[in-house]
Write a structure and sequence with these properties.
Length: about 325
């Protein structure tokens, strides 16, 4: 439900390309994000000694780890397909081999459970029978028992999914912004022509999307609280992920508005946030839900990190607004 933007000269409306990020986004060579690595200051004390040290090798016996059985599924009444919904309509589902955007006929009859994938709430909500939502757009969707648990305009707003698998199988933490994250936002804005000494960082999420033991960090920076219909110089709202790819830290942009000049006719403010992060197709890797809002509407997009060659790809979306 994204409006076409005129005046693209002044607005850098950024969307992650399907391909690899450009070279200028590459900043560091590392096997972990610099902000993730523990810096150990080793002090080497040079000692002169005549004693020959004997190295004692201690063989550590095999560790027997007793792990409590972990449930691989969540009990509930689930749809025949893992339907993903927003409060104002359905996005679609994974059919076992591909993403399917919403079609008129939804794979539910009413009374199904949905796991909330949102930074606004959690748990399970109940969905009704297929209906039409968001007058006068009439999206196919379901009424949720507690839609506010997914979030409300201007966001963040996540999604809910009628699927039995563990939706957050790997690390996912909400962090308080630090000067490091503010610095990354400053660098990103500056690379698009906007110099802000200390950008306002709204969200910092540490996540291991695929569970490979190397953490990613997703950052949202914005100086727009509630989007208006005029764009002012200096407006910014950007959501980006820092990820180690082939030993290099790359910055992948999910969505962004960066204004270096007054907006032209038809330009409106957008506010981006990360609505939620969770596995939305059951492959054990987590997808990112991007939420965007504008003065008379909002939408969500599901972004999948496909692989290091394809990067992030937008898979599903649904919106409501004029
Ligand atoms: Ca990872
Ligand atoms: Ca997944």
């Amino acid at each position: 439900m994204r409006r076409a933007l005129a005046g693209a000269v002044v607005l850098a409306l950024l969307v992650a390309a399907c391909g690899r990020p450009s070279a200028e986004d590459t900043t560091t060579t590392s096997s972990t994000l610099p902000e993730e690595s523990t810096t150990t200051t080793s002090t080497t004390t040079s000692t002169t000694s005549t004693t020959t040290s004997t190295t004692t090798t201690t063989t550590i016996p095999p560790t027997t780890t007793t792990t409590a059985p972990t449930a691989s599924t969540v009990p509930g009444r689930w749809a025949s397909r893992p339907l993903i919904v927003a409060p104002w309509g359905a996005l679609g589902w994974w059919d076992g081999s591909k993403w399917v955007g919403t079609v008129a006929s939804l794979p539910v009859s009413g009374g199904e459970d949905y796991q909330v994938v949102s930074f606004a709430g959690s748990g399970i909500v109940r969905g009704g029978a297929p209906t039409e939502l968001c007058e006068p757009v009439f999206n196919p969707g379901v009424e949720l028992s507690d839609p506010a648990r997914l979030g409300e305009w201007p966001g963040p707003v996540g999604v809910a999914i009628s699927a039995p698998w563990i939706v957050q199988p790997h690390l996912l933490e909400v962090l308080a912004p630090t000067s490091t994250h503010i610095g990354h936002a400053r660098e990103l804005l500056a690379s698009h022509g906007l110099d802000i000494a200390a950008p306002i960082v709204k969200q910092v999420l540490r996540v291991d999307l695929e569970g490979d033991g190397v953490n990613e960090v997703v950052v949202v920076a914005a100086n727009i609280e509630q989007p208006f219909w005029t764009v002012n110089p200096g407006d910014y709202s950007v959501a980006f992920m820092r990820k180690v790819v082939d030993g290099e830290v790359q910055t992948l942009i999910l969505g962004g508005l960066i204004a270096t000049a007054p907006g032209g006719e038809g330009d409106i403010q957008y506010v981006y946030s990360i609505g939620g992060i969770g596995d939305l197709n059951g492959d054990g890797k987590m997808e990112i839900v991007l939420h965007g809002s504008y003065y008379e509407g909002e939408w969500v997009e599901v972004w999948e990190y496909v692989n290091d060659d394809l990067g992030l790809m937008r898979r599903l979306s649904a919106g409501c607004g004029a």
